[in-house]
Amino acid sequence: MKRIFILLILCMSLLQGCAKIFYRSAAKAFEKDKQNQPYDVIIVPGFPYQGNEWDMVHKMRIHWAYYLFKKGYAKNIIFSGSAVATPYVESKVMAYYAEALGIPKQNIFTEEKAEHSTENVYYSYRLAKGLGFKKIALATDPFQSSYMGKFMRKFEIPVALLPTAIDTLKTLDLYEPKIDPKLAMKDGFVKLSSRENFFQRIKGTMGKYIIWHEEDLKKKKYRRRFKDRMISSGALSKEP
User: Fold this and answer.
1) Angle at 41 between CA 147 and CA 189, to 5 degrees
2) Strands, DSSP E only, in 57-211?
3) What pLDDT band is residue 6 in, cutting at 50, 70 and 90?
């Protein structure tokens, strides 16, 4: 019993140490890319909503987006995400919360196709380009920023990083405004875990199901790899 307790303490210490590393890395990334503000738009990935009060992740991502908008670092916001784990369209829920916090509706956009985090980034990037936005940044929590940063560097997607600065977030009033979540419900919803098994969902997280636009695949090896999941100029619809 004593050994199990010691092991738990060691695991907790390791997790805390990893969290601090992510926080420091995120703070550095924010300070670096903040220098290029204001951004035309920031991308904020969605998170499952359970239908009652919001999750801690919602609180973090939405209030951080509000902070960036209020400070003038971002002129507009794209919330991204379909109905994945619950019947609520994640991007719509977040958009309602953001509007309730005080962000004007005309500055809020939703990308409602993505079902995996890599899709959040890519499809929102395509939407941003379609809307005429030039300077684009991803604004999410430190953990997701780290993984998505690697994804964007791998495929040379020109999106900056404005990850949540935890020390700054702690100084904000993270209250939850009132919304009507029923407005964000999707008819005929079937959760992702019923449509994809565990390994398929992992592949989705890695970006294996993205429908790429040929112009965004800079390297020949990626164009060959995603040939069957690629939109060639004029061959298919170019909607994000």
Assistant:
1) 65
2) 77-80, 108-111, 136-138, 160-161
3) very low
Q: What is the mean pLDDT of residues 103-118?
A: 98
Measured in residues, the chain has a length of 240
8 A C-beta contact, residue 99 and residue 79: no
Q: Which amino acid is at 31?
A: E
**3-state DSSP assignment of residue 80:** strand
- In three-state secondary structure terms, 164 is coil
* Contact call for residues 66 and 104 (beta carbons, < 8 A): no
Using an 8 Å Cβ cutoff, are 82 and 91 in contact?
yes
Distance CA 225, CA 228 (A): 8
Contacts of residue 81, Cβ cutoff 8 Å, sequence gap at least 6:
45, 46, 47, 89, 90, 91, 94, 111, 112, 114, 115, 120
Q: What is the pLDDT of residue 29?
A: 85
Biggest CA-to-CA distance, the chain: 66
Closest-CA residue to 45 (of 90, 82, 80, 76): 80
pLDDT over 70, % of the chain? 87
The tokens for 76 are: 């507009």
What proportions of the chain, in percent to the nearest 5, are helix, strand and coil? 50, 10, 40
What burial class does residue 18 get, using C-beta atoms within 10 Å of its C-beta: 0-12 exposed, 13-18 middle, 19+ buried?
Answer: exposed
